[in-house]
Structure formats: structure tokens, C-alpha cells
Write a structure and sequence with these properties.
57% of the residues lie in helices and 0% in strands.
Length: 330
Amino acid sequence: MNDLKLSLCRCKEFVFLGLLCFFSATGFAGESKAPQPISAKPVIAPIVQPNTTFRSDLTLPHPEHHLAWDQDHSAKKQVDQAITSRWLKDLRMLIQEPHPVTGPTSAGNPQSAPQLNGQTPDQSGIQWKPLIAQSLTFLWIEHGFRFLTEPGTREELKGPFFKDWFQSAKNTRGWRDGDPFIVNYIGHPMQGSVTNYMFVHNDPKYIREEMGFSKAYFKSRLRAMLFSTVYSTQFELGPLSEASLGNVGLFPSKTSRHPSAFVDLVVTPTLGTAWTMGEDALDRFIIKRMETHVENRVVRLLVRSFLNPSRSFANALRGKYPWNRDGRRL
């Protein structure tokens, strides 16, 4: 019994001591603490956990702002891609050589049209301004040659201009004009061929048509022949013609009673077109085949120039080298 009482007393002591330690640690032991002196040590700010709830001091962007930014970013990206693509295309154009023309093409099919520097031929209308300028240049070259080589033409520059002009044109009749064969059937067809090529060079839609049995080729040469007819008529009877400048036909000559006849008016456009098609055939079937076997540039330019004399002269009238070919390098 005594041992039991002793054990209970010890348990009470342990419980009392435990409570006393607890209250002492938590500041509720009942003793008043003296005020602590202010320490000079820096006060460490307590660690504040981030607030995951909505904060009133923060303003979230409106959804429309995100949409506008996305659209602006997409537009800038498209512009950058377009600039890059154009730059690469220009770089390829500078590096790559144009594809040579290998055969007749159709103007109605842009995919089959020959390309120069990666671009298809211009499909715009006839370039009248350079065509008229080249025609006037050719006209004055021809009249200058007449004034230099024909004394009778220089003598007939005197007298009333309009009266003599109208009378000379009115006297046009018959076929033979008294000129030699080489003038009527070589010189005038070449004149018609030069004017044909002048028109073709200023007709962007058909400028690269080659000899062939295509509708586009014959259409281009027919258009050129119509222009050649107008030019030839003006050269024979117009205000800047043989009839007005030199009064050809005003009086009979030593070789013909009618120096102004219809032979030149007919032969120049018709045989001139045939001459043009002959040069086209030589260029496609002879010159191009020669160029596949001959690398010498001097030989190639000489063959181009002399086998296509009318085309060479028309090239010179538009400021190009005589051996120039549209769509084909030397």
C-alpha cells in the first residue's frame, strides 16, 4: 500500500513538473517578464507566402488585346516571308541564265511561252511610241540615201510642194516603174522585211514567236504585214514620200513612162513578209542548230547578223546589237 502511495505521489510530481515546463515555454507561467531592451540588430522581415488568390492591384489584359497582338504578329510574319521569298527569287534570277527557246510557242498559252530571266513575255499592247520613232528613223535613212545617190531627186525638190506632190501621186499607174530587178525584187522586199521586224519587236505579245505552223506565228506575221503595207504606201505616196520629196512620177523617166507604178506598193509588203518568214526559218533551223555545236561567240554573232540581215537592221534601229535575239542569248 505504501508503495502504491509512493508511486501516485511521484506521478503527481511528474505531471506538475510537465505542466510547469509547458506554461513556462508558452509565456503563461504567471510571471511578468521584464521589458526587453531594443536591439540594434536588423529585423529580418518575415517570409510571406505568395497569394494565389485574385489580387485587386493587378489588371489582367483583355482577351481582345491578345487577339490584336496575334494578328499583328501574323501580319509581320507574312511580310517577312514575302520579303525573304522575293529576295531569294531575285537572287536566283541573277544566278540562273535564261532558258533558251527550243521551239515554236503559242501566245495563247502562257505556260508554253519562252521565259527570259524567269518572266513570261509582256502581254500588253503594241508599243506605238518606239515603233513610230524607229519608223521615222528608217524613213529618213532611206530618203537620205536617195538625196545622196539620185541627182534628179535633188533637182525636183524645187517647186510648189502640194501641187507637185498631188500630181505625182495621181500619175501612179501600171506595174513597171523602170527600176532594175535588184531594186524592185530584192531591195523593196528587204524594206518590207525590216518594217515587219520593227513591228514584231514592238509587239510584246508575239515578240518571241518562232517559225512554225502555229496560229500565233502566222497571226503575228500578218499583223506585221499590215503595218508594212501602211509604211510602204506612205513611203511611195504619203506626205514624206518619194512623190512629195523628189516628185517621183511627176515626169516620165528614161526607163519608164510611169516612174510611179504599183509594183513597189504590192511587192514591198507581200514579198517582204515572205522574206521575213525565210529569215525566221534560217534562224530556227540553221542558226540555232549551228549554235549548239559552235561555242565561238564571234562566229555565232557573225552568222546571226549576216543570215538575218533585215532582223539585224531592225535590231540596230531599236538600239540593240544586230545579232540580238529576244529570249535567247548569244
